[in-house]
């Protein structure tokens, strides 16, 4: 049992941020909101420091690519948890692929450092103000962002596999 | 215990009372082939299968590979078992460079040989992209019997390798093609 409910959480968020909370849904009982990217740090800080909510744990930051959504191609997804209240929250911020910039969350959660580097590594999201924004998992020489859907998943540099043996 | 002990066959030569004459090359080849020290560079499931090959059931020690060398300086054979990510490529190459000549490379399993099922942006599509390979073992992962077969193929190579091979222009050209001086 959650000490606070999703409805209460959403009400508080709407009170505090108003129209900056664009939409909300409840997939599998977990509150999932879409926000204006400009308020992300304020929102994380507020959730972290609120006397009741106490979202002190950043479970994950990840990215996603929706090539068909015009000017909302890239999405940064934050998963938060309030250990004390036993409740989780998912925050989505959509960014245009032409200018994928969002403020870094490292000022609120130190653990965001590596997660943001990973999101940068795979989706090319620029986290403004990040102390060390460089690739973390892939080779430094890589010149593209592999999980964007504009690239083939296969290694484009390989020469030894003949197409005819692989049904291409 | 009256078990018959099998010893390596002598190379062809002239034998008489108190003497045996043969080529130095073959004697050295015989000695090297039966005392290969492998460096297991195991990154994933092929490494587990290789552990089985080393252990008592399959007993790689029968082939003179008793001692796994975990230092490249004292290793003769680089045994690469498992998926090599592109980020691991330079590490693998450095290990290879640290080995002293003569050195051999055994590529174990589909991933090390060709990238295997991991036809993707992060995986090296075969270790022969960064270092020269002597023997490839197919399989995903290969059975210990296949690993033993691969090692015996290496032994054959070692046994019949010319002492001058490592100084030959062909060998130098091979290394140069990998950017190794």
Q: What does this protein look like?
A:
Chain A has 168 residues and is an alpha/beta fold. Chain A has a single domain, classed as 2-Layer Sandwich (Beta Polymerase, domain 2), CATH 3.30.460. Chain A has three helices and seven strands, in the order H-E-E-H-E-E-E-E-H-E. Chain A has a five-stranded mixed β-sheet with strand order 1-2-5-4-3. Chain A is elongated, with a radius of gyration of 18 Å. With 181 residues, chain B is an alpha/beta fold. Chain B is built from six helices and six strands. A four-stranded parallel β-sheet of chain B has the order 3-4-5-6. In chain B, helix 1 runs antiparallel to helix 5 (144-159) and helix 2 crosses helix 5 (144-159). Chain B is globular. The N and C termini of chain B lie far apart (52 Å). Chains A and B meet through loops of A and loops of B.
Write the layout of secondary structure elements.
The complex is a heterodimer of chains A (168) and B (181).
Chain A: H1 6-17, E1 21-25, E2 31-35, H2 40-49, E3 57-65, E4 74-82, E5 87-95, E6 101-103, H3 112-123, E7 126-128
Parallel strand pairs in A: 2-5, 6-7
Antiparallel strand pairs in A: 1-2, 3-4, 4-5
Chain B: E1 14-16, E2 19-21, H1 24-33, E3 38-42, H2 45-54, E4 77-81, H3 89-98, E5 104-108, H4 109-114, E6 135-137, H5 144-159, H6 169-177
Parallel strand pairs in B: 3-4, 4-5, 5-6
Antiparallel strand pairs in B: 1-2
Helix pairs in contact in B: 1-5, 2-5
Summarize this structure briefly.
With 168 residues, chain A is of the alpha/beta class. Chain A has helices at residues 6-17, 40-49, 112-123, and strands spanning 21-25, 31-35, 57-65, 74-82, 87-95, 101-103, 126-128.
Helix content of chain B: 25-40%
The count of helical stretches of chain B stands at 6
User: How many angstroms separate the termini of chain B?
Assistant: 52 Å
Report strand % of chain B.
Answer: 5-15%
Q: Which class do the helix and strand fractions of chain B yield?
A: alpha/beta
Mean pLDDT of chain A: 89
Q: Shape of chain A, please?
A: elongated
Global Rg of chain A: 18 Å
Q: Write the element-wise H/E pattern of chain A from the N-terminal end onward.
A: HEEHEEEEHE
Under CATH, the topology of chain A can be stated as Beta Polymerase, domain 2
- Give the H and E element order of chain B: EEHEHEHEHEHH
Multimeric state of these chains?
heterodimer
Q: How many independent structural domains of chain A?
A: 1
């Amino acid at each position: 049992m959650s000490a606070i409910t999703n409805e209460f959480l959403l009400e508080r968020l709407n009170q505090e941020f108003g129209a900056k909370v664009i939409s909300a849904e409840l997939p599998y009982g977990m509150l999932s909101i879409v926000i204006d990217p400009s308020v992300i740090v304020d929102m994380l800080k507020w959730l972290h420091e609120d006397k009741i909510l106490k979202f002190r744990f950043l479970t994950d930051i990840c990215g996603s690519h929706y090539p068909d959504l015009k000017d909302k191609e890239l999405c940064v997804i934050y998963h938060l948890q309030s250990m004390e209240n036993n409740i989780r929250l998912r925050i989505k911020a959509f960014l245009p692929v032409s200018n994928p910039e969002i403020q870094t969350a490292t000022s609120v959660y130190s653990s965001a450092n590596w997660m943001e580097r990973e999101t940068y590594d795979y989706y090319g999201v620029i986290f403004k103000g990040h102390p060390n924004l460089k690739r973390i998992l892939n080779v430094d020489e890589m010149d593209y962002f592999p999980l964007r859907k504009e690239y083939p998943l296969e290694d484009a540099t390989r020469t030894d596999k003949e197409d005819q043996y692989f049904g291409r | 215990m009256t078990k018959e002990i099998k010893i390596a066959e002598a190379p062809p030569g002239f034998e008489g009372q108190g003497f045996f004459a043969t080529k130095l090359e073959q004697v050295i080849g015989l000695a090297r082939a039966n005392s290969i020290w492998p460096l297991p560079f195991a990154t994933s499931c092929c490494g587990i299968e290789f552990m089985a090959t080393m252990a008592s059931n399959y007993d790689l020690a029968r082939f003179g590979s008793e001692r796994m060398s975990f230092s490249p300086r004292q290793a003769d054979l680089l045994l690469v078992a498992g998926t090599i990510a592109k980020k691991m490529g330079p590490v693998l190459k450095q290990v290879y460079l640290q080995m002293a000549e003569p050195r051999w490379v055994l590529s174990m399993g589909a991933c090390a040989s060709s990238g295997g099922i991991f036809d993707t942006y992060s995986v090296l599509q075969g270790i022969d992209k960064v270092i020269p390979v002597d023997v490839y073992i197919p399989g995903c992962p290969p059975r210990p019997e296949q690993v033993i077969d691969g090692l015996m193929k290496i032994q054959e190579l070692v046994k019949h390798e010319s002492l001058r091979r490592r100084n030959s222009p062909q060998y130098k050209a091979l290394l140069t093609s990998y950017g190794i001086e």
